[in-house]
Amino acid sequence: MGVFIPPHHPNEEDPTLAIQRDLELVEFLEQLGYHEAWIGEHHSGGFEIISSPEIFIAAAAERTKRIMLGSGVVSLPYHNPLMVAERFLQLDHQTRGRSMLGIGPGQLQSDARMLGISASTQRERMIESLGIILRLFAGETVTYESEWITLNKAHTNLKPYTNPHPLIAVASAVTPTGAKLAGEHGLGMLCLAASVFAAYDVLDVNWKIACKTAENNGLRMDPSQLRLVVPMHLADTREKAWENIQFGFKQWEDYSFSVNPKTGLLGLGGIQEAVENGLAVVGTPDDAVECLEKYWKKTGGFGCFLHLATNWADFDNTKKSYELFARYAVPKFTNRNSQRINSLKNMKKNSDVYSESYRAASQAAIDSHFSNEVKGSIEK
């Protein structure tokens, strides 16, 4: 289990305090036993305010000991591939292998336009850049020239701390581009829009494409490296959950329709329809289990379920939501308590026998005590 932190923060909030809360959240999640946190890269819109996931990861790594920390995602067309490779090799060493490289073409067109990058070139540039990064991770010296990349006998200073290199996951939404790229290199997949109907419909299709592509390249896709990103807020009751998200949902929805004016970030029907169809959750831990089972059935099995950190609720209720998921949803979904349940059933089934055995042993100890006292008195 993990969390995907874009992050989403309303524009009226103090950004300094918002980023500090994100760091506190990662610490809190580690205490709860969450395995991963992925941090976004955005440069416009004012709502998703982390521009360098690497800086955030470095800070979060100093506050934590176990949780894995990834970029969600580095928009490869915005960067020279040598710089990306160098930064993540440094993080690989600084975190002792806890950093992960999530890569994608870049989501916000407002970001790409500021850099003079055409939407039609972004996916191709992502593919081009990843190929170079993998060569650099492998220790190659790379000379390369293209429309946007110039490398002259380029190599990295460091070898990877992680063998053979830091974990890499490719962003995947609706198109098969990410799936094919992940399959070509045998990498993980980050399904960033799993709860959007169009993306949900092709979750299994894109996974099969990735597996087939991997097979054609003599590789095998590992289901443990399939990650699904889904918005979820939990409370003790469904009514309380819906009440909680009134804190920040409207601001989030306004932003989502700025990104995609026709459907918002949740697609047609919005949060209500997504929840009704089990693609997102505003409810209880039991609702979360049903959602997990739906995605498991759809994909045939996945490695990590990532909460989309929407900040719909205030910080205290947000933390409680993550805690409820860890305490009650995960154990049910993973059947983690089966031994405990069987142990309690066995105790209840045999309670009369155990009770009588204990009573008899206690009475025997009492009888023995008084028998010895009487014997002692006679001897005196």
Textual characterization of the structure:
- The chain has 380 residues and is an alpha/beta fold.
- The protein folds into 2 domains: 2-338, Luciferase-like domain (TIM Barrel), CATH 3.20.20.30; 341-379.
- The protein is 52% helix and 15% strand.
- It has helices at 15-32, 53-63, 81-94, 109-114, 119-137, 177-185, 197-201, 203-216, 238-245, 249-259, 270-276, 285-299, 315-334, 338-349, 351-379, and strands at 2-5, 36-39, 68-71, 74-75, 99-104, 142-145, 150-154, 167-172, 188-191, 226-234, 281-283, 304-308.
- The strands form 2 sheets. An 8-stranded parallel beta barrel has the order 1-2-3-5-8-9-10-12, surrounded by 9 helices. Strands 6-7 form a two-stranded antiparallel ribbon.
- A hairpin with a 4-residue loop joins strand 6 (142-145) and strand 7.
- Helix 1 (15-32) packs parallel to helix 13, helix 6 packs parallel to helix 8 (203-216) and helix 12 (285-299) packs across helix 13.
- The radius of gyration is 26 Å and the shape is elongated.
- It starts with a strand and ends with a helix.
Question: What are the defining features of this structure?
Answer:
15 helices, eight-stranded parallel barrel, TIM Barrel, elongated, two-stranded antiparallel ribbon, alpha/beta, 380 residues
Structure at a glance:
The protein has helices at residues 15-32, 53-63, 81-94, 109-114, 119-137, 177-185, 197-201, 203-216, 238-245, 249-259, 270-276, 285-299, 315-334, 338-349, 351-379, and strands spanning 2-5, 36-39, 68-71, 74-75, 99-104, 142-145, 150-154, 167-172, 188-191, 226-234, 281-283, 304-308. It is α/β, with parallel strands linked by helices and 380 residues long. The strands form two sheets. An eight-stranded parallel β-barrel has the order 1-2-3-5-8-9-10-12, surrounded by nine helices. The chain has a two-stranded antiparallel sheet with strand order 6-7.
